[in-house]
Amino acid sequence: MIVRLRGKVLEALPNQLILDVNGVGYQLHIPLSTYDKLNPIEGTQIELHTHLQVRETEHKLFGFSTPQERELFLLLIDRVSGIGPAIAVAVLSGMPVENFKAAVVNGDVAALSKIKGLGKKTAERIVLELKDKVGVADAWKQASESAAPSAANDTELALIGLGYKQTEARKAVASVMKANNSADSEDLLRGALRVLNS
Question: 187, exposed or middle or buried, with CB in 10 Å at 0-12, 13-18, 19+?
């Protein structure tokens, strides 16, 4: 799995980049948010967080400027029925990650419906499935209520994104925090994965 690429921009369009990584050209599909953040100019060096989607007929590489964008993309395509990569990219293009999280936490279907390519029914399904099936909204709400997102909260969200239930993710994080309460997000994630897979 290709999860990160660093290279020189060969071509840049608002929805697509070609990146030269040590002489190999990678075509990446990107949301407008990534294009706006990176402002990729041909010849400049950039780094992208990536997701490779493998299908029988094609392999598609998606690029994101931040881990949060990639995490939200994966949550949408993995956890919400009927949402594919095209709609997930449209969501990221149409709304900043923090605004999207707030809309889900508050059940703001109207705000989500304004995203191009997202109808009211799809917006309702996103709110319902992210709130009820995954428990993501609770973690997002906790993060927004605290002054700054904690390493524990970040790790819990990352584990939910990987497919673990919120309750088991929270227990695993708490277990690692008990042993080392000064662990950063990376150490917490590694430790929690060890606990969950033991």
Answer: middle
pLDDT for res 136? 65
How far is the CA of 86 from the CAs of 32, 37, 136, 185, in angstroms?
12, 20, 22, 30
Dihedral over Cα of 133, 136, 139, 142: its sign: negative
Which tokens is 60 given? 């598609």
Q: Could you tell me if 118 and 112 are in contact, meaning their C-beta atoms sit under 8 angstroms apart?
A: yes
* 4-13/59-64 β-pairing: unpaired
Q: Look at residue 148 in the predicted model and tell me its pLDDT.
A: 40
- What domains appear along the chain, each with residue ranges and CATH number? 4-64 (2.40.50.140), 69-137 (1.10.150.20), 146-196 (1.10.8.10)
**Cα gap 107→110, rounded to integer Å:** 9
Report, as ranges of residue numbers, the positions in the chain whose pLDDT lies below 70.
132-150
For residue 144, what pLDDT is reported?
56
What Å distances lie between residue 35 and 6, 9, 17, 56, 147, CA to CA?
15, 12, 9, 28, 29
Distance CA 102, CA 113 (A): 14
Encoded tokens for 160? 């939910």
